[in-house]
Amino acid sequence: MKFKFWGVRGSIPSPGPRTARYGGNTTCIEVRSDDGTLIVIDGGTGIFALAQSLLARGRAPVQANIFITHSHWDHIHGLPFFSPLFIRGSRVRLHGATDPVTGNGIEHVMGVQLQNSYFPVSETQMDATIEYTTLAVGAPIAVGDAVVHNVLMNHPVTDLGYRVECNGRSLFFTGDHEPFYNIHPPGHPEHAAYQAHIEQRSAAIDAVVRGVDALIVDCSYTREEYPAKQGWGHGTFDAALALAARTGAKRLYCTHHEPTRGDDELEAVFADVIARHAPLPGGLQVFLAYEGLEVELH
Ligand SMILES: [Zn+2]
Ligand SMILES: [Zn+2]
To answer: Where is the Metallo-beta-lactamase domain (predicted)?
Structure first.
């Protein structure tokens, strides 16, 4: 199994000279299972470059299995530009959660963008076969020779973290995730019950992540920035390292880079985090994700 980053930026596309080395496109990860099954996690603007590369390999129909972590724009707004949607014979299957507030299934993230106020081509004008699979939380699904597990993360909307497994190799992507914290102060009547709830949720995530070969985590903030952003639904480099250490992950890839952070600043904050945590536990390797980074899992 192998995977490749096509978008590593959080919140808003951020092209330009400041971000040229790590990339300005929003979240998209291409995964290839051992038999070549294409799994795409998230449809941020990076999915357009992925689509172009698929077409460059020949204009043959594409079979794509797209898994959406959650419906925020930076994770879906490249979807209508996924060129295989316009190629007859292609089959694009979109997977994701139900929005518990609206009751909308995953078809909504496509439908909302294809309203003619926002996009000139309707779904009926697209030549590919488009299918929607709304996932049950916690229910694994087979895709080619891979299995995709999901677990509920912590974000202002439902966000599914995905673990992809194939022939004993695995990766996990959090989507957007803020480690749990108790919203009630000690002594508050609901503190203990809430604490039990978040410990259970956190343990459920750890169980799905445990032993993963490649752990890809939302590292939007430094620990210094985090207090002003608590509750926004994003994590820190330090929390990602703690998750990796706790679960025995072999490699950690930090992603969802802040749009305000240029390449030099990103490398500076990363160097600070790594220096503080040296030596890393259990041979853990940690990387900053960048557009074009491809990883083969042996
Ligand atoms: Zn995001
Ligand atoms: Zn989000």
So the answer is: 25-212
Given a contact cutoff of 8 angstroms between Cβ atoms, the answer to whether 39 and 67 are in contact is yes
Domains, the chain, ordered by start: 2-296 (3.60.15.10)
For residue 155, give the ligand nearest its CA: 2
Predicted confidence (pLDDT) at residue 296 exceeds the cutoff of 80: yes
CA–CA dist 86, 83 (Å, integer): 6
The backbone torsions φ and ψ at residue 240, rounded to the nearest 5 degrees and listed phi first, read -65, -40
pLDDT band of 282, cuts 50, 70, 90:
confident
Q: Which of 13, 5, 132, 121 is nearest to 66 (CA)?
A: 132
Is residue 291 within 8 A of residue 25, CB to CB? The reply is: yes
Whether 173 has a pLDDT exceeding 90, the answer reads yes
Question: Is the per-residue pLDDT at 11 higher than 90?
Answer: yes
Q: How many angstroms is it from 10 CA to the middle of ligand 1?
A: 5
185 CA from centroid of ligand 2 (Å): 26
Cα 218 to averaged position of ligand 2 atoms, centre (Å): 10
